[in-house]
Amino acid sequence: MKGKMALFYVLLSLMFFLFGTACLWQFAKNREDTEPAAETLADSSESLQDQGQGKMPGQQEMQQTKAGGGAQGEATSEDAAQEEAAKEETSQKSDAVAEELPSDEALYDEEEAVVSETLATLIRQEHDKIVVLDPGHGGDDLGYTATDKDQKDQILLTEKEFALDVALRTKALLEKEDIFVIMTREGDTGEDLKQRVDRANVLPADFFVSIHLSMKDDSMLHGMSVIYNDQFYSRGYGSSDLAEQLLQSVTDKTLEAPLGIFPCEEEEEEVRLIVMPGVRLEMGCISNRQEVRLLGRDDYRQKVAEGICEGIRLAFENRQTEQTKQNTEDDTDE
Description:
- The protein has a domain at 101-327: Aminopeptidase, CATH 3.40.630.40.
- Helices cover 58% and strands 13% of the residues.
- It has ten helices and eight strands.
- The chain has helices spanning 2-52, 59-68, 70-100, 117-126, 159-176, 193-202, 239-254, 269-272, 289-295, 298-333, and strands at 130-135, 145-147, 155-158, 180-183, 207-214, 224-228, 258-263, 278-285.
- Strands 4-1-5-8-6-7 form a six-stranded mixed beta sheet. Strands 2-3 form a two-stranded antiparallel sheet.
- Strand 2 (145-147) and strand 3 (155-158) form a beta hairpin.
- Helix 5 (159-176) packs across helix 10 (298-333) and helix 7 packs antiparallel against helix 10 (298-333).
């Protein structure tokens, strides 16, 4: 009996031992699984705190990498910014010039009829060759007129209409030669002669060409003459040189008689007061009946315009040749 009781207690003790061992193993296993989860939760908490402060995960590494570029990275950024600023400034200047020169009308101050010096400077910066064309008369000022021999009230030709038509034709031809043209008028408008001269003198033009017709006491006389400013001297190429070239070029084209070149009279202010090589072209005698018919023809007017264009083109070439010659002589003297 005692032996059986002893065996019972031994078995019972073994059972308790095994149960306790199992409990301890399970507790240890649960603890191992819990520790990694706690570490992950802590990392997540820190990441959320960084985001709350404006830092994304990995931003610290990115900042370190960016800082590693050092002064070289900062210098590259500054150079790029300066280059971009320079391009923007150049673009703005080009746009400003383009906006300032949309048309001939924009070249003039409507109140004072004088071109601003600032705008004149912009024109010269944009163009190497500049010519002022002055179609004579305009508006109520008809200039010389030719009337029908039988019906005196019927006007066959007016100087103002002829001058404007030829000037516009000449302008179109000169622009094809890359010569910038400024017109003192582009329509049937009248303006004080002194205002035209003042405007032209402010312009940075190379030549001034005024277009007219003449009236002679002798109705049999016909042909072309040129009036020039003998008071103005331009080194290497003056008004008389321009007058001779235009007379030759136009008469070669039209086959009209050349009547010669003459210094201006006191009353011829559009030429006398100009401060650049300037001439007054008298394209024909409106007092001659045959020439009136000729001056009214479109094909003849086109030839006149072509002759003026050719004369101006050659005038620029001759002036450049003379200036080069003068500079060479100056260098030799030194």
